[in-house]
Design brief:
Layout (H helix, E strand, L loop, with lengths): L1 H14 L5 E2 L2 E2 L4 H7 L3 E14 L4 E15 L5 E7 L2 E2 L2 E2 L1
Helix pairs in contact: 1-2
Length: about 90
């Protein structure tokens, strides 16, 4: 089960935020659509995380360093960084 969760997480990360926004409507992609659109699919474990602010200090993002254990599709470095919106940086939270 952990392996399936890690693969699913890696697929979602590799594709990025695969949504088309129209007002408040988001398109939902199936796992197969996400898999087919992915340039890279890998299994990994988080090694570290850090936060920072972007967009002139308006948005907080969290960077995760991932130790790659297995590459299922494409190529990726042994350690790769993925970034998600949100987190807490100093007094700023999102």
């Amino acid at each position: 089960m952990k392996r399936i969760s890690a693969v699913l997480l890696a697929v979602c990360i590799a594709v990025g935020f695969a949504t088309d926004a129209a007002a408040t409507t988001l398109r939902r992609y199936t796992l197969l659509e996400v898999r087919d659109a992915a340039d890279t699919i890998f299994v990994g474990v988080p090694a570290s995380s850090s936060t920072r602010v972007v967009a002139d200090g308006k948005i907080v993002v969290t960077d995760y360093a991932i130790d790659v254990k297995e590459v299922l599709n494409g190529t990726v470095a042994a350690t790769t960084t993925i970034t998600f919106p949100g987190g807490k940086h100093g007094e700023k939270k999102m």
